[in-house]
Automatic annotation (TrEMBL):
Family label: Belongs to the glycosyl hydrolase 13 family.
Molecular function as annotated in GO: 4-alpha-D-(1->4)-alpha-D-glucanotrehalose trehalohydrolase activity
CDD domains: AmyAc_GTHase, E_set_MTHase_like_N
Binding-site list for substrate: 248-253, 306-310, 376-381
Site (Transition state stabilizer): 377
This protein's name: Malto-oligosyltrehalose trehalohydrolase
InterPro entries (alphabetical): GH (IPR017853), GH13_cat_dom (IPR006047), Glyco_hydro_13_N (IPR004193), Ig-like_fold (IPR013783), Ig_E-set (IPR014756), Trehalose_TreZ (IPR012768), Trehalose_TreZ_E-set_sf (IPR044901)
GO CC, any one term: cytoplasm
Enzyme category, top tier: hydrolase
Gene Ontology BP terms: trehalose biosynthetic process
Subcellular location: Cytoplasm
Length: 568
């Protein structure tokens, strides 16, 4: 940090601004750049500061800096000047290409008993042994209280102190790189959290409308240039200063972005400079998100693909309520495996409209689609927050993993599934405003009631016990050991058979009444989705199975909910 760097803040809504540094008040002056205010006071690491705003009638505040890089006393406290200096040791590290990666999604606060970045560091050897090549951290930006999924963040340049703050995040990234593990951050640019969001007092960071989680971020309206710069500068900070290897953009379908250049394209161009990976969460089934610039796309590297999850989940569990009503047959699962998108300008019963557009498989590689047996959303959006592993037999659980890992899509593991975790992952918050806590609980209850869930089973998001129940139990039982072994073997076979292939059109998928095969000329996965044994017309040499199939040269008899990896 330069000793001549000055305090400055974008506050076009303020009639006047005062800077508070270590308890002293200083006037600020309007800068040449519209809406900005500056001070002649130099910034020094460790200074506590904030801003008083005059709204035309009174002085209000002090408030933390919208671009604060550290909030040592939480989201309502003063900001702290944070030095960019750090003794990095990862000078030889380069971000791996997405093709061939195995991603592990985790929530820092519940992944280990400590609930810290340091706790994650202690598990890096374990993740390497499992076969993980990248970890994806659920959002780590500051939020109200000490417990939150992270999607209520308000300070987009800062790091939650309860996890260890910015210094400990850098230590985790440095340690991960030493283990040849990439680090992705989940970032939320579609809304601000409701607790501690003071940005609206400074300027028009949001606009009319609601995403369902908060006001719409102003990406297209008046004064949106500075809001977009706010997002893009945060992106650059994570990728350059923090050495982050990639970002997962939360719910891009909620962006109110009508500019000729999408904010996603602008984000990706910054990533192009560093070689970082940008992944979108999107339910639009819109090929533009992951299509190259030259083909009119935004150029992102990949997107989460709920379609494969939904298709697989429904054929194993039989659930068909809410958004699952568009799935539920092996024909749909096979079709989704062949095409990536379930909806390709076809009708969605759940949405009650035509949805999606077909991927051009000659231009889009299957590894650009992230698939999974579950995610934080697919667990936490259930009334009890119950995991698939709490409802499935070990054989069914291993079967789901086999389908995901054997596909050419990029696989992602949600923390704990590889050990058949019996701990739930319910939604939890600890807003500092009691009114917000009540509204959050009522909102969750209303949503679950709309989908027919029993409200008596919904944990209170604000209850400490709800958060504690979500912490992983690392004391593994026999089933856990067997599942963990299966995950390691399947990931090893995925690498051995080079299953992260380039062309989805080469994937051979066939199915019968209760069985499905997927594979290539050299290797195939045979699977049955039934309580009854199934004879599958594929034979060869058995490479691996979780159960005891009978494999001949021409056919395979699978146990109920069984699978077999066969070399032919």
């Amino acid at each position: 940090m330069s000793s001549t760097e000055q305090f400055k803040v974008w506050a076009p809504r303020a009639h006047d601004v005062q800077l508070i540094v270590d308890g002293a008040h200083y006037p600020m002056r309007r800068a040449k750049k519209r809406g900005w205010w500056v001070s002649d006071i130099p910034m020094k690491p460790g200074q506590r500061y904030g801003y008083l705003l005059h709204d035309g009638n009174d002085w209000v505040g002090p408030f933390p800096d919208p671009r604060t890089r550290r909030q040592p006393d939480g989201i309502h406290g003063l900001s702290e000047v944070f030095s960019t200096d750090f003794p990095w040791t990862d000078h030889g590290h380069t971000t791996k290409k997405l093709q061939g990666q195995v991603i592990y999604e985790l929530h820092v606060g519940t992944f280990t008993p400590e609930g810290t970045f340091a706790g994650v560091v202690d598990k890096l050897d374990y993740l390497v042994d499992l076969g993980v090549t990248a970890i994806e951290l659920m959002p780590v930006q500051p939020f109200g209280g000490e417990r939150n999924w992270g999607y209520d963040g308000v300070d987009w340049f800062a790091v939650h102190e309860g996890y260890g703050g910015p210094e400990e995040l850098k230590k985790l990234i440095d340690a991960a790189h030493a283990h040849n593990i990439d680090v992705f951050l989940d970032v939320v640019y579609n809304h601000f959290g409701p607790d501690g969001n003071y940005n609206g007092l400074f300027g028009p960071y949001t606009t009319m409308g609601s995403t369902g989680w908060g006001d719409v971020v102003n990406l297209s309206g008046a004064n949106s240039d500075e809001v977009r710069a706010y997002v893009l500068d945060a992106v650059r900070q994570w990728l350059e200063e923090f050495h982050v290897d990639g970002l997962r953009l939360d719910a891009v379908h909620s962006y109110d972005d009508r500019a000729a250049y999408s904010i996603m394209e602008d984000i990706n161009r910054i990533a192009d400079e560093t070689g970082a990976i940008i992944i979108a969460e999107s339910d639009l089934n819109d090929p533009r998100i992951i299509s190259a610039y030259k083909h009119g796309g935004y150029g992102l590297d990949a997107q989460w693909l709920d379609d494969v999850h939904h298709a697989l989940h429904t054929v194993i569990t039989g659930e068909n309520d809410a958004y699952y009503e568009d799935y539920g047959t092996l024909d749909i699962l096979a079709d989704t495996l062949r095409h990536g998108y379930r909806f390709r300008r076809t009708y969605s019963t759940f949405r009650e409209r035509t949805h999606g557009k077909e991927l051009d498989l000659s231009r889009i590689a299957p590894w650009q689609l992230i698939t999974y047996t579950t995610t934080h959303d697919q667990v936490g959006n259930r009334a009890r927050g119950d995991r698939p592993s709490q409802n499935l037999t070990p054989a069914q659980h291993a079967l789901k993993a086999a389908v995901i890992f054997f596909s050419p899509f990029t696989p992602m593991i949600f923390m704990g599934e590889e050990t058949y975790a019996q701990t739930p992952f319910p939604f939890f918050v600890s807003h500092t405003d009691e009114h917000l806590l009540r509204l959050t609980s009522e909102g969750r209850a209303h949503e679950f009631a709309r989908y027919g869930w029993d409200l008596g089973t919904v944990p209170d998001p604000a209850d400490t016990a709800t958060f504690e129940s979500a912490k992983l139990d690392w004391d593994c039982g026999n089933d856990s050991v067997e599942i963990h072994s299966a995950y390691k073997k399947l990931l090893s076979l995925r690498k051995d058979f080079n299953l992260a292939r380039d062309d989805l059109r080469e994937l051979q998928v066939e199915h019968g009444k209760n069985w499905l095969t997927m594979g290539y000329d050299d290797v195939v996965l045979a699977a049955t989705f039934s309580d009854e044994p199934a004879t599958v017309p594929v034979g060869g040499k058995l490479i691996y199975s979780f159960t005891q199939p009978k494999v001949t040269e021409t056919s395979t008899v699978l146990d109920p909910w069984g699978f077999a990896v066969i070399s032919r």
